[in-house]
């Protein structure tokens, strides 16, 4: 039994025709965490999730879920994971309560152990329990998908782009429920193109590009890899010509008296940048900085191997 919720080692997938979607992917998802799996379109994320779901056969390598190898123990592995796909998949002519009851039956959950109404209450759909699923809004359908993935109480939940097309209020409700599940011991794997969500929610993030893992670190450690920093400097007089200093990577005029300067924090510090501005003959009135975010790191890592 491994301590990882999901353990993937040297996983490869080559489709018919020679397209290599995964090329030796290796990483563990620690139990009890919210784990971000990020990458540009076509990076291999969906292939990886479909392999874990049992929808795509791996070419080589190993993957286990909650200690169960997906090849040797497929039933136990599938019972240990719930997956919310990008696509909305359920019969539009069933009601939400019927959808959950049928899904629970497919997983062999005894009737007395089913929690269908409890799940609908958790995702704020109790008042829609007996409405046809086709009448639900896009956000409601997304939340029903989350409830559907949890009917068998899996210890691992995979959310593949769960907030695509969902408004801000419903997004906040969904993340509140995900945090509640995580606090109750559910390990969550999240893929999203909203990088600010991953930065806020995830304990650890892996980034995949061209079928390989290019980063796998705690979120704070990953953010510290960004070396570019931006400082906005407001000076005491109008700027007729931009100062050019060696320590400036980029400089732009963003107002009559405000300079936006980009510098590399592994080569120079903010004090040296401000001293250079003063050395160019400008008195400084105000200073503000912008720290690098996950988007900066993501772009630097995915561009470097593009």
Automatic annotation (TrEMBL):
Keywords of this entry: ATP-binding, Hydrolase, Nucleotide-binding, Transport
EC assignment: 3.6.3.-
Record Pfam families: ABC_tran
Recorded name of the encoding gene: drrA_2
GO molecular function (one): ATP binding
Domain ABC transporter: start-end pairs: 6-235
Name of the molecule in the record: Daunorubicin/doxorubicin resistance ATP-binding protein DrrA
Domain of life: Bacteria
Database matches in InterPro entries: AAA+_ATPase, ABC_transporter-like_ATP-bd, ABC_transporter-like_CS, ABC_transporter_ATP-binding, P-loop_NTPase
